[in-house]
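thought: fold this chain, then report.
action: predict
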Amino acid sequence: MLSTAAMTQQSIVLYSFDACSGVAVQPGLPPLQLEGQPACECGLGMNSMKLDGSNDVLRLPAEANSFLKTDFTLDFYFWMEKQPGETDIFSHRFGCNSLDSLMALRYFSDTDEFLFELASDVGNYHSVRYKVDNAFCWHRFTLIRFGLEYRVYFDNVLAKKIIAREEVVFSKRASLVFADSPCNNNNNAKKYAGRIDEIQLFNGALSDQALKQSFTYPDRIITENTTIFQGQSITLESGASCDDPIVWSPAANLDNAASPNPVLTPDQTATYTLTVNHSNCISRDTVRIFVADRDKLDCDNLLLPKAFTPNNDRLNDQFGISNTFLLESLESFEIYTRWGARVWQTNQAEETWDGISDGKPMSGGVYLYKILYTCNGEQKTNVGSFTLLR
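observation:
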């Protein structure tokens, strides 16, 4: 089950299938309607619901529509068995004769793309096309509404920010449903075949930070690329996975190459690969561990980016110290505007700045930093500037 520690600001309804049912973990909505005979199979750590692509349907109760009247977050994990042509994943629409009150997610095999559509009418139609990383079996889809802004995420990566002309008012006569779009016959679309897990509805817009903190990293490596000193050990952490064979390679210097969280004591820099074999799908992820010689440290060479772009695309989203292994201790790391106003501070070496101060995104421009730290017993000061790009 997902941790909801970062989500306490919003009301949440979570449908988890660990007990092989569609009963909400937190009270608030009636159970899911399970049509056909969805199978209970291994999911994010425990169980999920598998739809057969033919008769199986997951339908949220009509009461779920109340979440869609104002700011909301829709979130779920899925493992799709790819079929030729068009696949209907989920939808919320009444009939198929117009674009009124439309929300739908589909997959097209010819382009290997997901298509998300959102519309209130022809003049307020929006679409998002996205290719996910096929190195993984499990994926996450998230839709967040904040006013007239609708943000679409795949695997925590912002695929598109939609600014609607007007609010999308969803039909009371429709329901959020997996594998039962009213347009399937018109489009010759196949019903979704695959697993669904952890369907969540939030009565509010989930923040980017909360979204990242709640990610379960299914079949993925949690440990980021990092540097350690010769002779040190590090635990390689991985996320939720079924009880399928797990293999880390190279196995040398690992205490257990079949463990989801082995202890590594490397003698040189290397890239380590996690492989999770689900028979009909294989997930692979990598992490690079750099090994440094303590006797060759350049204590004045702190590495910080010259610029960063906090737009949640997982590329250069954070500003911080890259080679934190230099620091024996960090007294302070402060960031200021050009006019001397402090906007962020920390004394934790691994902590980074996301471009937000007092809950608000800071504007683009040049900022200053000052770092007080100890390296090899010497007290050091490092000052400089960088650019925040919006």
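thought: worth noting. The radius of gyration is 23 Å.
final: tokens above.
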